[in-house]
Structures are given as structure tokens and as C-alpha cells.
Write a structure and sequence with these properties.
Blueprint lengths: L2 H5 L5 H23 L3 H4 L14 H9 L2 H32 L5 H10 L5 H14 L6 H5 L6 H12 L3 H9 L4 H12 L1 H16 L3 H6 L8 H5 L10 H32 L5
């Protein structure tokens, strides 16, 4: 092997990061670009990356076709309530599995964790029957109730709770603190980055949910954004630029939440680890 080959520098990792970043962002670019095209240009061959004659008509049409204030109110209310309850239940269960000692703790946790392997399609029918028996069909409560507890959230918070130094807990016990006080005064503040990461993951999951709303919601005034956007698809012909415009509007809240919490999310993935 020649000396030049030995001294040849390998490509810097940042170039690979930039490349894959562009690959990941390209679908979003194509969505926005398509939303600014007319029907003819959207199906042009070969396709164009940038619209030759940008237009906002698709956004005007999609605002006329859908009741956006009502859809945003439904989606925001269900998402915010579900995310808040999901954070609370996940943090409580995570603290119990990480800090409390009780019989069959590990077995119960493994059984609970195994539910992550069960797809939503398997439990959709018994879940619908349960909501019908509770008279929660076609209601926002029935829509959000199955989302207030998540096995992934419990697992993530358990790992974060394991990372809390035992010395803090021992000092709190010497001061006479109960588990409730330690949970609110020590555990939750130290797990803020993990809570932020779980918040945005939960927000994305609930905001983009389609299958369960499709099954449980019938009334147009109770629909969420993903369910209403599916109504833009025609039976024989779909106005794809208008669909892309509606999808672009629906993505804005998720993008804003991520921009607000990105620092906490990065810190969570760096510090939470897989201890325990």
C-alpha cells in the first residue's frame, strides 16, 4: 500500500450528517414545493423541484374546504390533554419501577413492556367494544382515553429515574421526605430533558393519529386534522397540490414544538442512557 494511500484523510463525519440531513428534509421540501404548484405543473414530466409559477390558491381552497378553527381546536385539545396525562402517568410509573421495591416488580415491568410489541390493529376491535360500553363512541374523551398511558413512556421515564443519584434520595429520606415529595421535588426536576423528549414524541403520535380517530369518530364537528385531511381525497380524482397545502399547515404545530424543545430533547438522548 502506498504512502499516499495511508495518509489519505477519510471524509469528515459532518459531510455525512449534512447529506443525510438533506435526504431526511427532502420530503418536506417536496411537500411545500408541491403545495405551491398548480394541477398541471404538479404532474409535469419530468417533475420540477421548484414551482415555475408559485401560487397560494391551494391554501385558499383548503381553507375553504375545511373548518380549520374547529379542526385545530379538536386536535389541540385532545393532544394537549393526552400529552399532559401521558407525561404524568409515565413519570409516576417510571418512578415506581425505578425507586420502589415491591413483589414481582421486574416481572410486572417486563409484561408491561411486552405490550409494546402488540400493534394497534390487534386491539382495535376490543378497544372499540370497551369504548362503546362506556358510551364514549364519537366523543373526544373516547378518542383520547387510550392515549393517556404508554408503555414506551414508562420505559423511558424508568431509565431516566435510574440515573438519579441515590445520595439525593438518601438525603431526602434523612430530612423526612416522603416518596411523593421526592417525586415532585427531586425526580421530576432532574428528568426535565426526558420529559421534554417524551412530550414531543407523544405530541407527534397523538397529533398524527389516524386509525383510531377513523374508527371512533363519526361526526364532522369532532374530527381531528389527519382525519379531515383524508376527506380531501376524491373518489376518482385527488387534487394533490391542495392535499399538500393542507398537510403543510398540519405539520406547522409539530415543527414549532420541536423548535421550542430541541435543546431539551438533545440533552435527554445524551444523558438518559439505558442504565438499569
Amino acid at each position: 500500500m502506498s504512502k499516499s494511500a495511508n495518509t489519505r484523510k477519510s471524509p469528515k463525519p459532518k459531510y455525512f450528517t449534512i447529506f443525510f440531513g438533506f435526504v431526511m428534509l427532502f420530503p418536506f421540501f417536496w411537500m411545500i414545493s408541491s403545495s405551491l404548484k398548480n394541477g398541471v405543473e404538479a404532474f409535469a414530466t419530468p417533475p420540477t423541484l421548484f414551482p415555475k409559477h408559485p401560487t397560494l390558491e391551494n391554501y385558499r381552497h383548503v381553507f375553504q374546504a375545511l373548518d380549520w378553527p374547529r379542526l385545530f381546536l379538536n386536535s389541540i385539545s385532545v393532544t394537549v390533554v393526552c400529552v399532559a396525562l401521558q407525561l404524568f402517568t409515565s413519570a409516576l410509573a417510571g418512578y415506581a419501577f425505578a425507586r420502589l421495591n415491591f413483589r414481582f416488580k421486574n416481572i410486572i415491568f417486563m409484561i408491561y413492556l411486552a405490550t409494546m410489541m402488540i400493534p394497534m390493529q390487534v386491539i382495535i376491535v376490543p378497544l372499540f367494544i370497551e369504548m362503546r360500553q362506556l358510551n364514549l363512541i364519537d366523543s373526544l374523551v373516547g378518542l383520547g382515553l387510550p392515549s393517556i398511558v404508554t408503555a414506551f413512556g414508562v420505559f423511558l421515564m424508568r431509565q431516566a429515574m435510574f440515573a438519579i443519584p441515590r445520595e439525593l434520595e438518601e438525603a431526602a429520606v434523612l430530612d423526612g421526605a416522603s416518596h411523593i415529595r421526592m417525586f415532585f421535588s427531586i425526580a421530576l426536576p432532574l428528568c426535565t430533558p426526558t420529559l421534554a423528549a417524551l412530550a414531543i414524541l407523544s405530541f407527534m403520535s397523538v397529533w398524527n393519529a389516524y386509525l383510531w380517530p377513523l374508527i371512533v369518530i363519526f361526526s364532522p364537528e369532532k374530527m381531528t386534522l389527519p382525519l379531515a385531511l383524508s376527506n380531501l381525497h376524491g373518489e376518482n380524482l385527488t387534487d394533490w397540490p391542495m392535499v399538500m397545502a393542507g398537510t403543510t399547515i398540519a405539520v406547522i404545530p409539530i415543527a414549532l414544538i420541536y423548535l421550542i424543545l430541541q435543546k431539551q430533547i438533545a440533552q435527554s438522548f445524551l444523558t438518559a442512557g439505558l442504565k438499569g
